[in-house]
Amino acid sequence: MKITIAEVSQFVGQEVTIGAWLANKRSSGKIAFLQLRDGTGFIQGVVVKSEAGEELFKTAKALTQESSLYVTGIVQEDNRSPFGFELNVTGLEVIAEAVDYPITPKEHGTEFLMDHRHLWLRSRRQHAVMKIRNEIIRSTYEFFNERGFVKVDPPILTGSAPEGTSELFHTQYFDEDAYLSQSGQLYMEAAAMALGKVFSFGPTFRAEKSKTRRHLIEFWMIEPEMAFYNFEDNLKVQEEYVAHIVQSVLKNCRLELERLGRDTSKLEQIKAPFPRITYDEAIEFLHKKGFNDIQWGDDFGAPHETAIAESYDKPVFITHYPTSLKPFYMQPDLNREEVVLCADLIAPEGYGEIIGGSERIHDLDLLSERIKEHELDPEAYKWYLELRKYGSVPHSGFGLGLERTVAWISGVEHVRETIPFPRLLNRLYP
């Protein structure tokens, strides 16, 4: 019977066949241990010379790293293994022999591993990170589907930019200028006016020349938009959503978190509600911490966000930023018009901002005024203004950066490990 490694718990004591690759092996004169992987997981295959016979044992000892094979054996429980099972091998069929596989069990430099990203993905560590990424995606759909949201796909090629064009990739769209999307938000607002509660999940692009561990050129965003939701409603959805995906990873990816050495006790504390501080309070806090370089009206950098986050065990909302720091579409606080009804959600443990969100301006005259103030082309935003002209309602939304969220939950240091094929300032290969 042909099965996957993920299914072995259902076949204890039975002989099965698994299509796999040899991740590693070690052997003595009488026994060979084969570290096998098939994409669904890892399992150890044990070949005992006295039971398997001379020919099979010889085949096992000759196997090379990353050769593909069909492995037949009897599933046995093994309490010493993190996986809980092993395979007592009774047969081997080599499909394709791998020769001189470049990524050996020794240490390799980051650039070497990035040059071989197509192979590095096969490692236990990268496998664990990708499984956690997948669980975050799965639980994202679960969360929004259960709450009546409709999935909408905004365009990747756009004729305008929600936050200006200085950090966008320009291209020719036949005889017009176009840009790779930095956010689907404006289109999601249109979708919310048609469908009520919507969310998108897709690639976004920033031509930002940054080399920090938090930045990618191409990354994925989850962007919900909700009609008839005010600022407070919006924050509630955000904290419930983040708590949901963290608890889902804890429930379904325990083995992967252990493989990465993640301190799960920190994740177990991530439950709604989350603490909140205003921008004003954040500035005051930073001054007390000795950050005298930052003044009211300045944006926060990574050291500032980290200092604030270190005071909390959960993600923390920083709310009510100065209007001058934020995009044109954010609703001002009616009690204090120099700040807007927005919030950034800062992850614990130094991972920075994972969500940016706000209530959107729903007044036609105010939005028209803001577009002029930001020196944007009113003609390019004509359709966006019409959303306020024909049945405008208060509405809110946010965007969560998937890769930063994966980095935080999995505990890896750099976002380059959280996406299958990262696009960085100096990297377009492979």
UniProtKB/TrEMBL annotation:
<dbReference type="GO" id="GO:0004816">
    <property type="term" value="F:asparagine-tRNA ligase activity"/>
</dbReference>
<keyword id="KW-0067">ATP-binding</keyword>
<dbReference type="InterPro" id="IPR012340">
    <property type="entry name" value="NA-bd_OB-fold"/>
</dbReference>
<protein>
    <recommendedName>
        <fullName>Asparagine--tRNA ligase</fullName>
        <ecNumber>6.1.1.22</ecNumber>
    </recommendedName>
</protein>
<dbReference type="GO" id="GO:0005737">
    <property type="term" value="C:cytoplasm"/>
</dbReference>
<keyword id="KW-0648">Protein biosynthesis</keyword>
<keyword id="KW-0547">Nucleotide-binding</keyword>
<dbReference type="GO" id="GO:0140096">
    <property type="term" value="F:catalytic activity, acting on a protein"/>
</dbReference>
<dbReference type="InterPro" id="IPR045864">
    <property type="entry name" value="aa-tRNA-synth_II/BPL/LPL"/>
</dbReference>
<comment type="subunit">
    <text>Homodimer.</text>
</comment>
<dbReference type="InterPro" id="IPR006195">
    <property type="entry name" value="aa-tRNA-synth_II"/>
</dbReference>
<keyword id="KW-0963">Cytoplasm</keyword>
<feature type="domain" description="Aminoacyl-transfer RNA synthetases class-II family profile">
    <location>
        <begin position="130"/>
        <end position="430"/>
    </location>
</feature>
<dbReference type="GO" id="GO:0003676">
    <property type="term" value="F:nucleic acid binding"/>
</dbReference>
<dbReference type="GO" id="GO:0006421">
    <property type="term" value="P:asparaginyl-tRNA aminoacylation"/>
</dbReference>
<dbReference type="Pfam" id="PF00152">
    <property type="entry name" value="tRNA-synt_2"/>
</dbReference>
<keyword id="KW-0436">Ligase</keyword>
<dbReference type="InterPro" id="IPR002312">
    <property type="entry name" value="Asp/Asn-tRNA-synth_IIb"/>
</dbReference>
<dbReference type="InterPro" id="IPR004365">
    <property type="entry name" value="NA-bd_OB_tRNA"/>
</dbReference>
<keyword id="KW-0030">Aminoacyl-tRNA synthetase</keyword>
<dbReference type="GO" id="GO:0016740">
    <property type="term" value="F:transferase activity"/>
</dbReference>
<comment type="similarity">
    <text>Belongs to the class-II aminoacyl-tRNA synthetase family.</text>
</comment>
<dbReference type="GO" id="GO:0005524">
    <property type="term" value="F:ATP binding"/>
</dbReference>
<dbReference type="Pfam" id="PF01336">
    <property type="entry name" value="tRNA_anti-codon"/>
</dbReference>
<dbReference type="InterPro" id="IPR004522">
    <property type="entry name" value="Asn-tRNA-ligase"/>
</dbReference>
<dbReference type="InterPro" id="IPR004364">
    <property type="entry name" value="Aa-tRNA-synt_II"/>
</dbReference>
